[in-house]
Structures are given as structure tokens and as C-alpha cells.
TrEMBL record:
It holds the Pfam family Pyridoxal_deC. It comes from Amycolatopsis bartoniae. GO terms for molecular function: aromatic-L-amino-acid decarboxylase activity; pyridoxal phosphate binding. Signal peptide: none annotated. The keyword Lyase applies. Its cofactor is pyridoxal 5'-phosphate. This is Pyridoxal-dependent decarboxylase. Belongs to the group II decarboxylase family.
């Protein structure tokens, strides 16, 4: 068949692209257990990507797939390897690639109804489901974001709009005492980053001390808020963490919610790592209080194993989210429809990709229970790892294991010994673990947010760690 435009494929090319894609996905999946965790980047090959920027004449479907297979894949990190345990990063679920292909094909612009009716309803369905997991009321609204960092940034912008009179018109360009944010020393850097971006300034972020389980100390929080009020500052917002990035600790959300109510402060819960553990019944008591937050962030690209990027912000009183972001744009309005949500009114973007499709597709294909099972398994594997560490003379846990982060030290090992051990484990393809520092002590962190990890994988890592310890004792 003749090509109708230079930029579409002929029937034959489309069939060939399909064959090559299916073969690539299949080989990738089958090769995972034997694959290298970290590539040994071929610098010359990567340099050619810079040198031959873009060809004047296209290399065609087969040429493209050859380049993908020969240059891109071998120089990419295998995040789906079952012993990839270095970050809070879930490998994509099994239907991710197909949902992404469909999303790219229909290319819905998820900003307003007319451009994306089904996408708008799908996003709303995903958000309503996530809100129900948190226990938010029907007034809640949200938006899918590029990740947890952006969800926190967008939450704090909402809190500014809600709590600072005249914020939309005058911003922070008025002479008023500084606003202050409270979070813990264990909070993610995205809180500082949001404060910097929003013009609050990192000097106005108080990092509250934590208890022996790395949870925000509420007495210390109260004292710091009181001192700030006394000094004439404006306490404004608390960011509590449901699953800290280093140790997975969960701040005392209920007690913090009480304090925020008493003191009239906006409460944002950073649930980027931990929020989705609310899927598991046994975690609900620990996370009680999340439902009382003004806003919460969660990351489907972590524990719903959606491919990057899929974060989520939920605001308990959805009208506040809309008030912070909606601007009239006469050229974009259509008749009201009860099904309709114009997501351009709920966040900073106008053009937006159809992120909800990959989340929704996986929920359809596998069902919620499969995610509950996978999430619960990560919790169990972390406990299994922790028991293995405790049972090994020469290894010591650095922190209680609340969720799936297991932090430990090799006794008497220095920071550089730990760094070398991490390098060795990665180089021999045993596992990719990460460094951690807790209370000034350097150690190692395994974060099990990987639905492919099995008990055998954890046992293999423990066995290797025992060899290392034994060789140190010789
Ligand atoms: C507690 C916490 N908050 C925020 C983030 C940032 O999330 P994202 O990488 O999706 O921006 C992370 C990432 O690991 C996290 O663990």
C-alpha cells in the first residue's frame, strides 16, 4: 500500500514493527533473570548517539529496532531484575507496555472533556478508587502527576492558595511575616525543593526531630510551632510522612492531625512510598490519620507498578484544589456534563498525557487483589530479610522495619567498606542495594518495592552477605 504521509507506516511496515516489538518484549521478559542489574555502559556506542545526532534519511523500522536492541537496551539499567532493591522504584507490571502503546496511539490530551472524554472518566475512576483507599470523603478530588515530588509541590501550592488571603492576586509579594512548613528530619527532599520553588524558602522549613523509630516527635513539633508563633512567624503547613524514604517509618498521623486541627495548619501527608500500603488491611491501623489530612500524595509508579511516570495528589476538599488551579479560558469551555472533569482546572499543566490508562489497565487486567497480594509479599519479604540480618552475627539492623526498607550495617565496617560491598554486590550481579545514613551511621539499605522479588532472591543475598561477614572475621 502507498504511504499517505511520510510519517505513517505502510501496512507492511506496521506488521514488521509489530513483529519486532513483540519479539523485543518477549526476549526482554525471558532474559530478565539472567540480565545484568547495571549495564556496563559502552561509552563509544553512547557517544555515537551524540555524534550521529539524527540521520537526514530515516533508517526505517528494522533500522530503528536494531538500534533499540543494540544501543539502547544493553546500556539501560534493569529495574525489573528481581534483585533490583536500591530505590523506591517498582518494576512495571505486565500490561504496562501495551497500555502505554495504546495511550500513545490515541494520544488523548487530558486537559478538558472534549479532547479526552473517556480519559477524563478513567482518570476520575482511578482517583476515586485511590481516594477510597485513603478513606477520603466524596468531596475529595485529585489529579495524576509526574510523581510524588510534583504531587507535594502541587499540594503545597494548593495550601498557599487556601491559607494565604489574596494569594492568587498578590502571591507572596506582600510584607507579611514568613510562612513556616514543618516536616521531619527523615522527610524526603522534595519538601525542601517545593518550599524553594514556591518562594517559601528552605530557611522556613523546620526539620523536626524523630523518635527512636524515626517518626516525627509530636512534642518537639508542638514546641517548635509555639516558638515560631512567639517569634511572630506564620506556621502554615505540616508535611507528615507515611513511609519515609530511608527507613519506611510512618509519622504519628493521627496525633499530627489533632495538632493541625488545633493550630489550624494545613496537613499534607507524603505517602509517595507508603500510602499504597493502605491496600493491605493490616497496615490501616498504623496509617490511621491519613484520612484526616488536607492532602495526600501517593505514587502508582511505585507500589502499583505503573511504568514511569504516575504520581497522584488527592485533596480532601476538592473545591480547594480547583480554586488553586482553575482559570477561565473562554476558548476551551464546552457545555457542562455531569461526567466531566476538566483536569486543566486541577493542576498546573494544560497539555497532559493519559497517565490514568496504564494504572487503570493494570487494575482491569490483574484486579485489585493481585496488587494487594504483591504489596503484601513485599512487606513479608522485608520481614524475612530483617530476620535473616538479625540471625547473622556480624550484621546489625539500623532501624526497625516498618514497611519494606531494610537498613543494616556490617559490624565494624567503615563507610568505604560499605560502599565497596555495594559495588561488589552490583558488579557480581548479586543485587543492587543502596547506601543509607541513619543517625549519622552509614550502612546499606534494601528496599523491596519489586513485585518480582522472591524468597529465594532474598536468601541468595543473605547467603552472600554471610560469606562477606565470615571473610571479614577470618
Ligand atoms: C517518601 C517519598 N516522598 C517523595 C518521593 C519522591 O517521589 P517521586 O520520585 O515520584 O517524585 C519519594 C521517592 O522515593 C519518597 O520515597
Amino acid at each position: 500500500m502507498l504511504r499517505m504521509s511520510e510519517l505513517v507506516l505502510t501496512d507492511e511496515e506496521r506488521a514488521r514493527a509489530g513483529e519486532r516489538l513483540v519479539a523485543l518484549l518477549d526476549r526482554y521478559e525471558r532474559g530478565l533473570p539472567e540480565s545484568r542489574l547495571l549495564p556496563e555502559p559502552d561509552r563509544d556506542q553512547l557517544a555515537t548517539l551524540l555524534a550521529d545526532l539524527v540521520p537526514e534519511k530515516g533508517i526505517g523500522v528494522d533500522g530503528l529496532f536494531d538500534r533499540l536492541e543494540n544501543t539502547i537496551l544493553p546500556n539501560s539499567t534493569t529495574v525489573a531484575h528481581p534483585r533490583f532493591l536500591a530505590y523506591v522504584l517498582g518494576p512495571p507490571n505486565g500490561v504496562a507496555a501495551y497500555a502505554e502503546a495504546v495511550a500513545a496511539t490515541i494520544n488523548q490530551n487530558c486537559n478538558f472533556w472534549q479532547l479526552s472524554p473517556a480519559a477524563s472518566v478513567v482518570e476520575r475512576a482511578v482517583l476515586e478508587w485511590l481516594a477510597s483507599i485513603v478513606g477520603f470523603p466524596a468531596t475529595a478530588k485529585g489529579i495524576l502527576t509526574g510523581g510524588g515530588s510534583l504531587a507535594t509541590l502541587q499540594a503545597l501550592a494548593t495550601a498557599l492558595d487556601d491559607r494565604v488571603p489574596g494569594f492568587r492576586r498578590t502571591g507572596l509579594q506582600r510584607s507579611a511575616p514568613p510562612l513556616v512548613i514543618y516536616t521531619s528530619v527523615e522527610a524526603h527532599r522534595s519538601v525542601d525543593r517545593a518550599a524553594a520553588i514556591l518562594g517559601i524558602g528552605v530557611d522556613h522549613v523546620r526539620h523536626i526531630t524523630v523518635d527512636d523509630q524515626n517518626r516525627m516527635d509530636v512534642d518537639a513539633l508542638t514546641a517548635v510551632i509555639d516558638a515560631d508563633r512567639e517569634a511572630g512567624l506564620r506556621p502554615w503547613c505540616v508535611v507528615a510522612t507515611c513511609g519515609t524514604v530511608a527507613t519506611g517509618s510512618v509519622d504519628p498521623l493521627d496525633a499530627i492531625a489533632d495538632l493541625c486541627e488545633e493550630q489550624d495548619l494545613w496537613l499534607h501527608v507524603d505517602g509517595a512510598y507508603g500510602g499504597l500500603f493502605l491496600l493491605c488491611e493490616e497496615m490501616r491501623e498504623l496509617m490511621r490519620g491519613a484520612a484526616r489530612a488536607d492532602s495526600i500524595s501517593m505514587d502508582p509508579h511505585k507500589l502499583l507498578f505503573a511504568p514511569l511516570e504516575a504520581g497522584c495528589l488527592l485533596v480532601r476538599d476538592g473545591a480547594k484544589l480547583r480554586a488553586a488551579y482553575a482559570f477561565d479560558s473562554s476558548y476551551l469551555t464546552v457545555a457542562e456534563d455531569p461526567l466531566m472533569t476538566d483536569y486543566m482546572d486541577y493542576g498546573p499543566q494544560l497539555s497532559r498525557s493519559f497517565k490514568a490508562l496504564k494504572v487503570w489497565s493494570a487494575l482491569q487486567a490483574f484486579g485489585v487483589d493481585s496488587f494487594r497480594v504483591a504489596t503484601r509479599r513485599t512487606l513479608e519479604l522485608a520481614q524475612h530479610f530483617a530476620r535473616g540480618v538479625e540471625a547473622t552475627t556480624g550484621l546489625t539492623l539500623l532501624a526497625p522495619v516498618t514497611l519494606t526498607a531494610v537498613c543494616f550495617v556490617v559490624d565494624d565496617a567503615s563507610h568505604s567498606d560499605h560502599t565497596k560491598l555495594l559495588e561488589t554486590l552490583a558488579a557480581e550481579n548479586t543485587a543492587l542495594l543502596g547506601p543509607v545514613m541513619i543517625n549519622g551511621r552509614h550502612g546499606i539499605r534494601a528496599c523491596i518495592t519489586n513485585h518480582r522479588t522472591t524468597t529465594e532472591d532474598i536468601d541468595l543475598i543473605l547467603a552472600r552477605l554471610r560469606e562477606v561477614v565470615a571473610s571479614r572475621q577470618r
